[in-house]
Amino acid sequence: MILVTGGAGFIGANFVLDWLSASSEAVLNVDKLTYAGNLGTLKSLRSNPKHIFARADVCDRTVMDALLSQHQPRAILHFAAESHVDRSIHGPAEFVQTNVVGTFTLLEAALAYWKALPVADQAAFRFLHVSTDEVFGSLSPDDAPFSETTPYAPNSPYSATKAASDHLVRAYLHTYGLPVVTTNCSNNYGPYQFPEKLIPLVIGNALSGKPLPVYGDGRNIRDWLYVGDHCAAIREVLAHGRLGETYNVGGWNEKTNLDVVHAVCDLLDRLKAKPAGSYRDQITYVADRPGHDRRYAIDARKLERELGWKPAETFETGIEKTVQWYLDNQEWVDEVASGEYRKWVEANYALRASTLSTQ
Ligand code: NAD
Ligand code: TYD
After folding, report:
1. 113 in a domain, yes or no?
2. Of the bound ligands, which one is closest to the alpha carbon of residue 192?
3. What is the position in ligand 1's atom list of the atom closest to the CA of 35?
4. Is residue 326 within 8 Å of 200, Cβ to Cβ?
5. Structural domain boundaries, residue 85
6. Any idea what the CATH number is for the domain that residue 66 is in?
7. Which atom of ligand 2 has the smallest separation from the CA of 197?
8. Smallest Cα–Cα separation from 121: which of 159, 72, 162, 171?
9. What is the pLDDT along the chain (359 residues), one digit of tens a residue?
10. Looking at the record's lineage, which domain of life comes first (predicted)?
């Protein structure tokens, strides 16, 4: 079996669902179920004996040791993290705890487990660390996209803690020989993304007639990748990635935030038209995020050259699937948008008074 951490979150759950639809190999899903973890996403696996769920904190060494020794996985895929940049600005401590201390604790448990394996199993074992392109910092308009050799320059508490975790993973290979591989991926979008991130937030606010908050001038650029393509890349890296290597994963889809918001509004105008006007009318410019990185872009050629991976979705096909999914799954959104979520929305947007007139 494989052990997945954070498999009740956005990307982890998509990964588990995709994995079990294509493979008979079982998954041990270890998740603390923070505000971002939702078992509702995994409802379809309720009676599937290949999905074993353990509610646990990756910072808990005793529990990690016990789970590894009981289930004997051939690989650990580490998705669990605090993942929202805005939350890391409001409260960085939890990010240091889960992203740094949690990764360290999991590496220690993995190393002890791996050392005790028979030699053949040791050679086949993998610790796959799921990371982000945000560790590379911010690009200027004319800079080349991030490659695997771009120096680290994280700018937010989120990216700084992810960078620290990447360095620890690297050190466990070089110092102790733990067979690791790391992926650094660009912004994901798709089904089951928690509604505080840009795309699901815009869909939800649009449908309920609320302002669509665009930070700053809306010209910050992200390189968007459909979540199913990210999951496919992780499967490839697990199966064929070279030991100790890092692989950048991206969609060759650089878009400004305004482009993204416009695309969502235009799809909603087509799929669920308002009685009058366009959803674009709800766009509102609000105060910028402190230290807001201007541009991310990924050079994913190494992954394509070595493992033959390419994204299956373009931004146009992926965003249409995503908007349609949210229209069809309002019940899931209502379930996850708990009291805690509403408190977050108040904390993040109350102080961001509209900076320009609605456009
Ligand atoms: P998410 O916030 O949606 O989910 C994180 C999951 O981890 C949740 O289920 C949460 O309950 C769990 N978790 C948090 N702390 C935990 C702990 N201490 N112990 C066990 N479980 C814990 O995040 P996501 O968007 O699915 O991201 C998954 C991974 O991918 C993260 O490592 C993130 O850095 C990375 N990543 C995300 C993106 C993106 O665009 N979302 C892009 C590149 C990389
Ligand atoms: P987000 O989904 O939080 O991902 P990240 O910060 O990890 O890239 O945000 C994506 C972009 O959208 C980012 O540049 C910030 C911007 N943004 C807004 O303009 N308004 C919003 O309400 C949110 C949540 C994000």
Report:
1. yes
2. 1
3. 11
4. yes
5. 2-189+224-253+296-315
6. 3.40.50.720
7. 2
8. 72
9. 999 999 999 999 999 999 999 999 999 999 999 999 999 999 999 999 999 999 999 999 999 999 999 999 999 999 999 999 999 999 999 999 999 999 999 999 999 999 999 999 999 999 999 999 999 999 999 999 999 999 999 999 999 999 999 999 999 999 999 999 999 999 999 999 999 999 999 999 999 999 999 999 999 999 999 999 999 999 999 999 999 999 999 989 999 999 999 999 999 999 999 999 999 999 999 999 999 999 999 999 999 999 999 999 999 999 999 999 999 999 999 988 877 777 888 888 887 866 654 44
10. Bacteria
Asked about 113 being catalytic, the answer comes back as no
Residue 97 lies in a domain: yes
**118 belongs to a structural domain:** yes
Cα–Cα dist 109/112, whole Å: 5
Dihedral sign from CA coordinates of 258, 263, 264, 269: positive
Is 158 among the catalytic positions?
yes
Q: Give the total number of structural domains in the chain.
A: 1
> Which of 31, 113, 158, 313 is flagged as catalytic?
158
State whether the beta carbon of 221 lies less than 6 angstroms from ligand 2.
no
pTM of the model: 0.97
Distance CA 238, CA 2 (A): 10
275 assigned to some structural domain: no
Say whether 133 is catalytic.
Answer: yes
Q: Cβ(201) to ligand 2 under 6 A?
A: yes
